[in-house]
From TrEMBL:
Residues 1-17 form the signal peptide. This is Limb and CNS expressed 1. Keywords: Signal. InterPro entries: Autophagy-related_EPG5, LIX1. Belongs to the LIX1 family.
Length: 289
């Protein structure tokens, strides 16, 4: 029945359905208030195939899975992917529970290490426990911040400055991806470009390929989309900085509008779940140990 329902969405106004879903959800959460935070972005293209991204409240990003000949079709397909994931995220199996945490940690490391907050596994365990009752999508949104900080080298720099793991986790687990953080990350990459000309372009090409592959696989896109936008911002500032008449660059981030398809979620095995766990653990191990 569930698969038939998802199939039937091809014949309905999925853009309106997605809006209504989040309107009702936020109305309940905000005691009658509604704050529309569904954002769409069409990637610049001189012609088909067209690409569209949609960002949900909280920041999760989805893109059109199909090859689309029109911008309207790309927008509908992005909304369809986002709606399927939004609905599946409400299922009980997508909630973080003590049983899920125990099973995940048992397959990753010994429980003894997980009970020690001084280890990367212990920190990860604490983060999971702080999200008990919340969804995997909400946890993913928080972990995206740490993924970006790991990719950018910020976590490594903080470790070298002897910042404690607990203080870093406490601070960044409460931070959202805003203009200030994006500009700060872009400035770091601008500095790397000045030291090694051409590095930004190479890194951007890699990020763009990763984004294309991720979108075609139907997975959650925010990490890949944010990387691409941060590098694009840094590269644009690098060009301005090298213009003879340019003054000192001022980074002003132009907000991007930045998970698996429903069938993938519904048939997700423990191995797939654990692959994400290992990814998050890898961030903790490499940058916060």
């Amino acid at each position: 029945r569930t698969l038939l329902f998802f199939a039937s969405m091809c014949a309905v106004n999925v853009v309106a359905m997605l809006h209504n879903f989040w309107e009702q959800k936020q109305t309940i959460q905000l005691n009658g208030a509604f704050k529309s935070l569904l954002l769409y972005e069409s990637a610049p293209s001189p012609g088909p195939p067209y690409i569209c991204y949609v960002t949900l409240p909280g920041g999760s990003c989805f893109g059109n899975f199909k090859v689309c000949d029109t911008q309207a079709e790309a927008r509908r397909d992005a909304a369809r992917v986002a709606l399927m994931n939004s609905l599946v995220n409400e299922l009980p199996c997508r909630r973080i529970t003590t049983r899920f945490i125990t099973q995940s940690l048992q397959q990753a490391v010994s429980i003894e290490d997980a009970c020690d907050s001084g280890t990367s596994i212990g920190t990860y365990s604490l983060l999971l426990h702080s999200y008990i009752g919340r969804t995997m999508l909400e946890f993913q949104e928080m972990m995206t911040v740490f993924q970006l900080l790991h990719w950018n080298g910020t976590l490594k720099a903080l470790r070298e400055r002897q910042c404690s793991r607990q203080s870093v986790i406490a601070y960044y687990s409460q931070r959202s991806l805003d203009e200030y953080m994006r500009s700060s990350l872009a400035l770091d990459w601008l500095g790397r470009e000045q030291k090694s000309p051409g590095r930004l372009g190479e890194e951007l090409q890699v990020a763009q390929r990763e984004l294309v592959l991720a979108r075609r696989q139907g997975i959650e896109l925010r990490f890949y989309k944010e990387k691409t936008d941060i590098l694009s911002l840094a590269l644009s500032q690098a060009y301005i900085h090298h213009r003879p008449e340019a003054s000192s660059p001022t980074l002003i981030f132009h907000p991007c509008l930045p998970y698996h398809l429903a069938c993938q979620f519904l048939h997700e095995t423990d191995t797939c779940v654990n692959s994400r766990v290992y990814c998050w653990l890898d961030v903790m191990r490499q940058s916060l140990s």
